[in-house]
Amino acid sequence: MDKQARRLEFIDDCIKIRESLGIKKAEVARAYGIDRSVITRFERGNYNSLDLYLFYINLEDNVNEKTRNSWFRLGWNR
Fold first, then answer.
1. 8-state DSSP, 22
2. How much of the chain, in percent, has pLDDT values that exceed 70?
3. Cβ contacts of 19 within 8 Å, gap of 6 or more
């Protein structure tokens, strides 16, 4: 597998995590502190960010039904 294919696989994992948690792109952008368009570019593979990838991975570990609303309402500090 080449580098581009691996990168797209990582991005696909991020999208699956976000969607499985029922989180919208705008919510991720607000919690991360960036514009929604950056999330869209990231999920399309047009924006590389290890920090943003790790943020998605942390979503899976830190967000559950009880914490979701407060976590995204208050924002999450990287």
1. T
2. 81
3. none
The lowest-confidence range among 11-15, 44-48, 56-60 is 56-60
pLDDT higher than threshold 60 for residue 8: yes
Give the whole-angstrom CA distance, residue 14 versus residue 64. Answer: 16
> In whole angstroms, what is the distance from residue 70 CA to residue 15 CA?
21
Choose among 65, 68, 56: nearest CA to 18. Answer: 56
Q: Dihedrals φ, ψ of 77, to 5°?
A: -85, 130
Q: How far apart are CA 34 and CA 49, in angstroms?
A: 12
Contacts of 31 (CB under 8 A, 6+ apart): 71, 72, 75, 76
Secondary structure of residue 11 in the 3-state scheme: helix
Q: What is the model's pTM? A: 0.78
